[in-house]
Protein: Molybdopterin molybdenumtransferase
Amino acid sequence: MTAPRTRTADALDVALALANPAPRPPRSPEPQAGHDPAASADPEASASAAAVPWDEARRIAADAGRDAARHAEAEAEDEVEELPLPGALGRRLAAPLEALSDLPAFDTAAMDGWAVAGPGPWRLAGSGAALTAGRAPRPLPDGRAVAVATGARLPAGATAVLRSEEGIAEDTAEDGARLRARHRDPDHGRDIRLRGSECRAGEQLLPAGTRITPAVLGLAASAGHDALAAPPLPSVALLVLGDELLVKGRPTGARVRDALGPLLTAWLPELGAEAIAAPRRVKDDPEALREALAGAAEEAEVVVTTGGTAAGPRDFLHAVLADLDAELLVDGVDVRPGHPMLLARLPHGAHLVGLPGNPLAAVAGVLTLLAPLLAARNGTDARPDPEAPLVAEVPGSGSRTGTRLLPAALGPHGLEPLRYHGSAQLRSLALADAFAVVPAAGAPAGAAVPHLPLRWGAA
Structure:
């Protein structure tokens, strides 16, 4: 990769400039759903005239991901890897998954009983021991029957399976062991899993781009595959900004625990990405941030930062991005929480997603910018799930505009907004199944709204 162009800048000058930023329009406290006094003050609440609507921000992020995917495909067609089945988990199929064999590969018994040939009664063949899975049986002549177990390969000539409870086996001195139906003969093909009834060899089972889940691994194995071709996951470097953050122990003095490092690292595989290393902690210093960003952009395709996106005295991200000649694609989104998020393209092509420092606001930023970016890079999308009704009313936010993302529990009656939804709070997130997407005007109970699922580690 080509190193990004930099220029020498005095750290003190940058810090002084940022300590006295251009004034921004004031913002009222974040609106609430329900009664949550702890969420009434939102330190992320600085608006920007450049903020784009939430839907538009997600579209821009997806477009950026598709552009990056096209460029990567043109540059590195040979990077597709052949991975043994367990190692392919979480990746995407580089090519359609085709069946290498008919499924089932041969006619099999769907029930315990007897394989019968033609109409009864039947003479029992063999020693009376049942055919079981894994054995290749001899052909069955017409008028004969043989005991069979579920899943066993049926002999050539078998026309049906007579279930155990529907047959009577008898020994007669004249004719030996005989079998007859208790009520009537089984219909032709009864309780037989016919060869190729699920698929035929060469048939496409799944399209390229499908995420490789445990179920996909099972299907691939049953269809004859030992390995799967998958492109590399987008690489992500995670930078956690802030002098106040602790990496272990209890909050003490004026310092707090870093919640986003563990949360985002564990979430990246579900989002279709791979962290290049453990989160790097970066102190509140413009030169340290510039050095960390330049290094991360050389190593990863996507850089994710937490904190430093607003206009406070120690928020240096905008100035450093300008110093690196980065192109801002999104600078603030009209959404609560998480308004001061951003998306930028760095000079050599890597993308940077700047998340707010408050944990719930950062999660909103992931769902707004990072998830669509990564999904598009992987050839899929991150659209909201179909609408679901709200279990409780979500009050409006007065004259303010903007989308609201509220953690919610998804139950049989719909989406129930959870109480602790301030931008710095994670309590509701741990109980949430989704984020309800609610307009600024609010919505009454029963109103159908889109929702963004939180599939923590799920397929």
Notes: Residues 385-453 form a domain with the Beta-clip fold (CATH 2.40.340).
